[in-house]
Amino acid sequence: MKMKNILLKLITLFITATITISCSSDKQDTTDTSAVEETASTETSTSPFKISLAQWSLHKSFFGPTLDGNWEEFGRKLREEPEALLQGELDPTNFPKIAAGYGVNTIELVNTFYYGKVDDQAYWDAYKQQCEAAGVSVGLIMCDALGELGDADADTRMKAVENHYKWVDIAKFLGAHSIRVNAAGKGTAEEVAANAVDGLSKLGEYAATKGINILVENHGGYSSDGTWLAGVMQKVGKDNVGTLPDFGNFCIERTADGCANEYDRYQGMADLMPFAKGVSAKAHEFDDAGNEVHSDFLKIMKIVKDSGFEGYVGIEFEGGTISEDEGIKATKALLEKVFAQI
Fold it and tell me: How far apart (Å, rounded) are the C-alpha atoms in residues 86 and 230?
């Protein structure tokens, strides 16, 4: 009888210790022991940085041959038949499980993979369950193709602001802390800056009611000028409007022959880190020692650390010389090596 009572107590203790994992939790699903062990090593590190995975790292695997560089046609299909774009070998619905397979438990979604699902609450209910099953949390949602927040026309600009509202709501539902947006528009640098300040301020006001941050990435055009974007942030002046500095997106002007005007990436990171609420580790190619050939990750991460930032650094592999799978693994390994050095 005593032995039976002891067993009952042990069973009760086990049940009490069981943790329910949600999309907003950073804990791993214990049904996937390999992923748990790999992630645990990252979580128990003394580093102030953790690794997340940007969904764009697998854009070829999700879009397949439909992503052929013709962005005008891509935009048309995205508006008219978004599901037809998803011709890759991987299903975006499975991204939480895919990320967990890399030992990463925080993901950064890209709205263009879910463009046709924006009003489908049943889909997002199921997606949240996917997160729970994989032990993965959503950190942010990268939002594109919603209009220009720096548009010169006030009505068109406001429409772009409103187009982001639903993604703010989805981010809130999934437990994310932010959405990433673009500060784009046409006109002089001063004109676009003034319009972007207006658009970002209005969007920031709505997002604040949901507890969501609005993050601007250096993503081409004026936004890739660190001084310009830092100036926009200063003029917006809202606690929930910040930046998502990307290691590699500092090309201000691009031509058919490549980048014609590039801002210094190290200066750019220093310019943008005071406003950062996330960091995007862009990678393209690696040398034999595993270092990224275009960006000195150690130098950049020292800038990140010196800014006082602590939190997630997102893997965003965008190369073509190795597979996306290899690129994600190589970027993760490099970040882990650099984290141990600073």
Answer: 36
Angle subtended by helix axes 226-236 and 189-208, to nearest 10: 50
CA–CA dist 340, 293 (Å, integer): 20
Q: What is the pLDDT of residues 86-124, one digit of tens each?
A: 999 999 999 999 999 999 999 999 999 999 999 999 999
Report residue 23's pLDDT band, with 50, 70 and 90 as the boundaries: low
What's residue 335's pLDDT?
Answer: 98
Rounded distance, CA 240 to CA 231, Å?
16
List CB contacts of 24: < 8 A, sequence separation 6 or more. Answer: 137, 138, 174, 175
pLDDT tens per residue, range 284-325: 999 999 999 999 999 999 999 999 999 999 999 999 999 999
Residue pair 96/109 in contact (Cβ under 8 Å)? The answer is: no
CB-CB contact of 275 with 233 (8 Å): yes
| Long-range pairs of 253-257 with CB within 8 A, sequence gap ≥ 24 | 253/221, 254/220
Produce one character per residue of 158-168: b if its CB has 16 or more CB atoms within 10 Å, e if not.
bebbebbeebb
Which residue in this structure is represented by tokens 């690696």? 286
pTM over 0.85: yes
Q: How many CB atoms are located within 10 Å of the residue 58 CB?
A: 24
Tell me the C-alpha to C-alpha distance, in Å, between residue 108 and each of 177, 239, 340.
10, 21, 23
Which residues are within 8 A (CB) of 39 and not within 5 positions of it... i.e. 6 or more apart?
A: 28, 100, 103, 104, 105, 135
Q: Tell the residue number behind the tokens 């070998």, with chain if given.
A: 89
CATH number, span 21-341: 3.20.20.150
